[in-house]
Amino acid sequence: MISLYYILNFVLIGIYPISRIFRLLNFFILDIPDELGTTRENSIFYTIMAFTVIKYLRSYSTLQFLSSLFFTIKVALITSYLFVDIKISLLYAGACLMIFVLCSEPKFNGKTKIQDVEDIKEFEELVGVKFRDNDEGDIIEELNERFKKKQQRKEKSQKILNYKITEMVFAEFYVDWADTCNYTKEIWANFSCKYTTKGLKFISINLAKIPRLAECYRINTSAMSRQLPTVILFEDGEEAQRFPPIDEKTNKIPKVLKYGKKELQSYFDLEKRYLATRDL
């Protein structure tokens, strides 16, 4: 079933060509060519096409691409109506704002094998980690100790990898209000359906429900955070890899321009992990 969000956005976008075809407004000013012979309307829609290509190349899911596309087209239509009649432009902008406020974007609801974690105790059981204390500050102190030990280890390329004797958990840490978390759900769900085995599990943790884990694993959940979502791969209860990565020297997080499916598969070595554990 098509979401109300998509229906309303398609209706909003469809108003313009309908008003054009049936001449409901005076679009004469948009048809005046400039020095290059291009009309204002064509200039606006050439810009839309350029932005659409850029958004498509940078999008990492269908949901993100559609959201960006709707926004770009509506801004262009508000600009077009502004040339025709400022009152119509303001009315159209108000309708766009109303839909944005009252009708939220649909969330990914496709097939997945990701298990939702409800509390720290369940997290302990699934990941295979045991904290000294679930309620006091010991949990943060213990995680900091573990992270320091991890920093002192050699790089992954210098370690001997034996996925067959390793219990692995792919954990997605997210919050509901972050658009990136919503847009990347499709990627993690596809990974879970393709790579889940007895030795490789996929779980998700809503940090709004378990904020203590955000402190434990140093995940910034502020509105300006570059760490949402954070995906951590655990091996026998210990953090082995995370994305976005934290620079161990500067303690900085790089800005992620795109969550590329192939790049993430390679980064986490998911194919080899799956092949090593599928027959367990």
From TrEMBL:
<protein>
    <recommendedName>
        <fullName>Thioredoxin domain-containing protein</fullName>
    </recommendedName>
</protein>
<feature type="transmembrane region" description="Helical">
    <location>
        <begin position="90"/>
        <end position="108"/>
    </location>
</feature>
<keyword id="KW-0812">Transmembrane</keyword>
<dbReference type="GO" id="GO:0005737">
    <property type="term" value="C:cytoplasm"/>
</dbReference>
<feature type="transmembrane region" description="Helical">
    <location>
        <begin position="7"/>
        <end position="30"/>
    </location>
</feature>
<feature type="transmembrane region" description="Helical">
    <location>
        <begin position="42"/>
        <end position="58"/>
    </location>
</feature>
<keyword id="KW-1133">Transmembrane helix</keyword>
<keyword id="KW-0472">Membrane</keyword>
<dbReference type="GO" id="GO:0015035">
    <property type="term" value="F:protein-disulfide reductase activity"/>
</dbReference>
